[in-house]
Amino acid sequence: MKKLLCILLVCVMGVMPALAENPDTGSWSQINQAVSKGEGWRKVETDGAFHLGDKKPLEGYDDLFIGDWGTYPSMDGSTVCVPMAMELARQWLGLEEGDMNGFITFSTTPYAYDRLTQGKANPLATIKSQGVMMDDTHPIDLVLATYPNADERQAAADAGVELVYVPFCYDAFVFMVNGRNPVDSLTVAQIQEIYTGQHKTWADFGGQPQQLDAFQRPHGSGSQTAMEEMVMQGLKIQQVEENFISDGMADAVAQIGNYDNGPGAIGYSYLYYVNTLVENSGIKVLAIDGVAPTDENLQSGAYPFTVNYYAVYRKGDENTEAFVNWLVGEEGQKAVAQAGYVTLR
Hints:
Elements: H1 2-13, E1 55-57, E2 65-67, E3 75-77, H2 82-93, H3 100-103, H4 109-118, E4 126-127, E5 132-134, E6 142-145, H5 150-158, E7 163-178, E8 185-186, H6 188-195, E9 213-214, H7 222-231, H8 249-258, E10 265-270, H9 271-277, E11 283-285, E12 287-288, H10 295-300, E13 306-314, H11 318-327, H12 330-338
Parallel strand pairs: 2-5, 3-6, 8-12, 9-10
Antiparallel strand pairs: 1-2, 4-5, 6-13, 7-10, 7-11, 7-13
């Protein structure tokens, strides 16, 4: 209780910067663009089935409370899904924009899956304007994320937990180069050759005779899982020095745009993240096999590295299952579109 009280005082009363708003780690540290509802935003949810429960006063305080999750699922997930979680909180809970950084506290992909599999809570979710810290003993119900890697899937199996994966939108796994690089498109085979170490210069692809610097992400990150399983398809990625491994997606974008003040770098991320969540000047997104990652090419499957984001929950959790069914239904897909993602239909 002492730990809970300390966190609550920090996050809600503002004695010092809120931990949930200024984390050293987690998804908010990888977002440097404003994320808010756009003009013309509208409420599409109509039945009010999912809501928070009653809040209980914290003993000894008149304006501090512990919040019950009620029928609304406690969430965690990937950085790229933070805006989706914000849209859901607007739709169902009517939260103020100023409360989002405290209420949506995503820990990034590997940690989110660990919490879901191990039945851990999201310990820092707050509604600052209401003086509420959400119950930090309630296990995560729902993860909004990229698909888990083999280790994360095995961890769930080892724990005897069966997870349900429901795709709720499309996105593109994209390759980025410095904006001054004249190369506009690569083939799937060329990408594989680059990351197995077969090419050292951009001249091999019609570019300048400049050193090719291929950046990677850490194993376990959502983008590295996509790279290993979808792009490389069993081919072994060349080992590189640590300074060529981008700790976060924001780092990846910055390094591709600015590395050594030259156009030699290449790296990868998700298109929604690049377009929405991070300052991306200085980079260019490549076409693959001559196909650009447009909405139409994602929905048709023409773009080779089309991906889904998933709503993931423990099998047998009927309340969360109903919430996910809403998300992939007509109303939910309107919310997906309103948050700027590419809908399933």
